[in-house]
Amino acid sequence: MIHQYIQTNQDRFLAELFELLRIPSVSADSRHKADVREAADYIVQKLKDAGADKVELCETKGHPIVYGEKMVDPKLPTVLVYGHYDVQPPDPLELWNTPPFEPTVRDGKIYARGACDDKGQMYMHIKAFEILMKHNLLSCNIKFMIEGEEEVGSDNLGTFVKENKGKLKADVILISDTSIISLDQPSITAGLRGLSYMEVEVTGPNRDLHSGVYGGAVANPANVLSKMIASLHDENGRVTIPHFYDNVAELSQADRDALNKAPFDLEEYKKELGIDAIAGETGYTTLERTGTRPTLDVNGIWGGYTGEGAKTVLPSKASAKISMRLVPNQRPDEITELFTKHFISIAPKTVKVKVTAHHGGEPAVTPTDSKAFKAAAEAFEEVWGKTPIPTRDGGSIPIVALFKKELGLDTVLMGFGLDTDALHSPNEHYGIKNFLIGIETIVAFYKHYSH
Ligand code: BES
Ligand code: MN
Ligand code: MN
Known about the structure:
single chain, globular
């Protein structure tokens, strides 16, 4: 019945998603402020159409939050669905095969910015809700909280959650904004990394200099910065910041074994990325490195002349943006402080350094023995005919820890994306199969959760 309904309505479901994908709701770019709002308005309308009886566009200091609910009976359990309608900037535009905000289907995949992260995944919930309403199957309460600032650190969501604890009262949080192993092997994410994001600036001479006249006699900030950054890892791929690993929770051998049981093809991984060899912390597998170990990476680095041709110049400044992915029980504020202290301490006298912190987020682990997790597992079993494997994803959804702290609620991370969906990259895409089976699995989740 459900499967049939999805098949009959799939063209409309996709057309609606495409309309949302056409709205360039880039939260980081102030030129898109009106587009971000338009995406929020669109979701308000779609929640109403699907049958929510209270839908609000909640203003914040930044982009609005969409809230919607369907209360069946206050005595029944309540699921709070979280998602985000904002997307990452599409740059570099020239690397897209088709324009980022003109959704295009190729090989059964929808190509568009936000196709997977998170418009496509979030929209599955609105369609699952429509189905539950149409078939009179909703046997619990549903609340929706869809934000527009996830990709820029959810600055105003914390305040919203703190100020609306009554409204957000629920029994569990349900999020689709993570990955499964593959369409042949479902998984449920049981852990996410945290984040500490820094920017550093190294300044040498008071102006750019002729690299022949001064080169060799004055410290070059770009050279100095490169050396400082290189020193942040040792030969085993470990981060050298003192006390960086102090609070890292080591997994038991049993947990490591369980994690490594997930199918993973290293050759396929390298091939897909176009690399000849992998790298990382000695003594850990790739799945452990991305799921359970902290990291430090340069996300951007600049300084001096980067235009066409050659300009002989010794830059006055060089900068970098550096992210550290964190694992339980590292704390972003602590790591930010350790980084700042260390980075300043390793700077030679020849330069001045400035270190600033951007947004961060706490790591999270979610229980795998809760009623809601079990319902999610049963939903996969029913729809996919396979038992999902619990995994740990390397990305961050800082709100998960915040929900636990502020609302005391655990989250079920029922994602349907693939790591290869090119999130945040050119040619982001999302499988139509993933979208449709995701809707069906979410409907099944409600069935198992409320019985
Ligand atoms: N949906 C992602 C996080 C994600 C991706 C989790 C894949 C698991 C698998 C989310 O939109 C995201 O990009 N988060 C940011 C953090 C945020 C503070 C900007 C990230 O992980 O970089
Ligand atoms: Mn996301
Ligand atoms: Mn993202």
